[in-house]
C-alpha cells in the first residue's frame, strides 16, 4: 500500500445554504462554477480581474458544490467566497439570508492518492490520525481521489499527526508518503489537548465518544426513499486530455485571454449538463473539481439522462446514501468521520465494507454504500443513535 497526501495551494471557505434559499442563491453558485464570468465587469487593471485559486488554464484548483436533502454546501477558495458569494448575500434582506453561514475559519485541503487500499480502508487510514489528534475534518471521496479539509490554523498539528502515523514528509515539504503503514504507537506523539480533554486512546473509545455526541444532539441516520446514487467522472475529450495530463500551475501570471483560455480547457457539453442539473434543484448532486483530476460527480441516478454520454463510470450500479444531519453539533466536533466509518467497518465483514465512502458537507455527513451494505449499516447505526 502506498499513500500520498499533498497540501493543495490556497485557503478555502465552507458555505452552508439552507435548501429553501438555494434558488435565491443559485446565481452566485453558478458564477463560482463558471469562473470566466468574473472578468466581464472588471477592467484588466482592476484588482478583482483575477481572483485567486485558479490554475494557469483558469480552472479551480479545488471546488465542491453539493446539493443534498439536508442542505446545499459549497467549498471554494476563500477569495471567491469573499468577492463573489458575500456580495450576493449582502445584497439580500438580512431576514432572508440569516440561515446562510460562511465559515469563520479557513481550511486547507489535503489531496490523497492511494494504491492498494479499498475506499473503506482509505477513510479509516486517513481520518484516524487526525481524529486521534483532536483535529476537526471534512472528508470528500470522489471518483479519483480523496480530499480532507482541515482548519488552516491546525497545520502544525496535522503535520505532527501524519508523521506519528508513519507518513514521511517529501523533500519539498508539500506532501507526505506512507509506503509501509507502520504507525508509531506512543501516547506522547499525540497532539496536545487542553486539560480535561485528552484525545481518545483507542478506536473503541473514539467510537464511543462519537456516538455519545451524536445521541446527545439527537442525530439520526436516515435513508431517503427511492434515492439512488451513481459515482461518475466527466468523459475526457481531446482538450481535457491536454488539461489533465499535467499539473496546472496555480501561478496567476499569464498573457492568455482569460475567458478564451478557460473555455478552451473544459468540456462545454459536460458543463452545460452540470448547470442544467443544478438549475433543476436536484435531490442529490455533488460535484468536485480538482486541478489534477477530471470532474467527479456523485449524483441522483434520475439525473443521468441530462448528461447523456458526457459521463463515464458504473452508471448501472446503485449506491445508497445514509444521511447524518449534523446541524446541531458544535462546529469544531472531531472524530465524526472516523467514528462512524470505523463502527460500520467493525460491524461488517471487511469485504462487505470495502465500498464504503464518505461525503462531508457543511452541516451533514453522508455515508455511501451499496444497497446491501446500507441495510446492514442502518441495522448497526439505528440502535446506536437511539437514546
List keywords for this structure.
single chain, 387 residues, alpha+beta, VC0802-like, 8-stranded antiparallel sheet, 6-stranded antiparallel sheet, 12 helices, globular
CATH topology of one domain: VC0802-like
Treating each run of at least 4 consecutive H or I residues as one helix, how many helices?
A: 12
Q: Main beta sheet, described?
A: 8 strands, antiparallel
Strand order of the largest sheet: 5-2-4-3-13-14-12-15
Name of the top-level CATH class of one domain: Alpha Beta
Q: What name goes with the CATH superfamily of one domain?
A: VC0802-like
Helix content: 25-40%
Report the radius of gyration as a whole number of Å.
Answer: 20 Å
InterPro entries: ACT-like_dom_sf, CASTOR_ACT_dom, CASTOR_mTORC1
GO biological process, one term: carboxylic acid biosynthetic process
Protein name: CASTOR ACT domain-containing protein
Short description:
The protein is of the alpha+beta class and 387 residues long. The chain has a domain at 3-40 and 51-178 and 201-227 and 317-381: VC0802-like (2-Layer Sandwich), CATH 3.30.2130.10.
Amino acid at each position: 500500500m502506498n499513500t500520498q497526501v499533498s497540501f493543495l495551494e490556497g485557503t478555502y471557505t465552507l458555505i452552508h445554504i439552507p435548501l429553501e434559499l438555494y434558488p435565491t442563491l443559485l446565481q452566485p453558485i453558478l458564477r463560482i462554477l463558471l469562473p470566466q464570468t468574473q472578468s466581464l465587469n472588471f477592467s484588466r487593471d482592476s484588482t478583482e480581474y483575477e481572483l485567486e485559486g485558479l490554475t494557469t488554464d483558469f480552472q479551480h484548483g479545488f471546488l465542491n458544490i453539493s446539493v443534498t436533502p439536508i442542505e446545499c454546501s459549497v467549498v471554494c477558495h476563500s477569495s471567491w467566497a469573499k468577492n463573489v458569494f458575500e456580495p450576493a448575500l449582502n445584497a439580500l434582506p438580512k431576514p432572508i439570508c440569516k440561515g446562510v453561514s460562511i465559515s469563520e475559519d479557513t481550511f486547507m485541503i489535503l489531496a490523497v492518492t492511494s494504491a492498494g487500499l479499498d475506499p473503506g480502508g482509505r477513510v479509516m487510514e486517513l481520518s484516524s490520525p487526525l481524529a486521534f489528534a483532536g483535529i476537526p475534518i471534512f472528508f470528500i471521496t470522489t471518483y479519483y481521489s480523496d480530499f480532507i479539509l482541515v482548519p488552516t490554523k491546525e497545520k502544525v498539528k496535522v503535520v505532527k499527526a501524519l508523521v506519528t502515523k508513519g507518513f514521511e514528509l517529501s523533500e519539498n515539504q508539500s506532501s507526505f508518503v506512507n509506503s509501509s503503514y507502520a504507525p508509531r504507537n506512543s501516547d506522547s506523539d499525540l497532539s496536545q489537548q487542553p486539560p480535561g480533554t485528552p484525545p481518545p486512546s483507542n478506536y473503541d473509545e473514539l467510537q464511543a465518544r462519537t456516538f455519545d455526541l451524536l445521541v446527545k444532539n439527537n442525530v439520526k441516520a436516515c435513508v431517503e426513499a427511492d434515492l439512488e446514487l451513481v459515482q461518475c467522472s466527466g468523459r475526457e475529450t481531446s482538450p481535457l486530455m491536454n488539461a489533465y495530463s499535467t499539473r496546472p500551475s496555480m501561478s496567476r501570471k499569464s498573457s492568455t485571454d482569460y475567458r478564451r483560455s478557460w473555455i478552451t480547457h473544459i468540456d462545454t457539453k459536460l458543463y452545460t449538463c452540470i448547470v442544467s442539473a443544478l438549475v433543476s434543484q436536484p435531490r442529490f448532486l455533488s460535484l468536485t473539481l480538482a486541478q489534477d483530476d477530471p470532474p467527479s460527480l456523485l449524483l441522483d441516478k434520475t439525473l443521468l439522462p441530462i448528461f447523456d454520454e458526457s459521463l463515464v463510470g458504473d452508471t448501472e450500479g446503485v449506491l445508497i446514501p445514509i444521511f447524518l444531519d449534523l446541524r446541531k453539533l458544535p462546529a469544531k466536533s472531531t472524530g465524526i468521520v472516523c467514528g462512524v466509518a470505523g463502527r460500520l467497518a467493525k460491524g461488517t465483514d471487511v469485504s462487505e465494507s470495502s465500498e464504503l465512502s464518505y461525503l462531508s458537507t457543511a452541516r451533514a455527513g453522508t455515508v455511501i454504500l451499496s444497497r446491501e451494505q446500507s441495510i446492514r449499516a442502518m441495522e448497526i447505526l439505528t440502535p446506536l443513535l437511539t437514546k
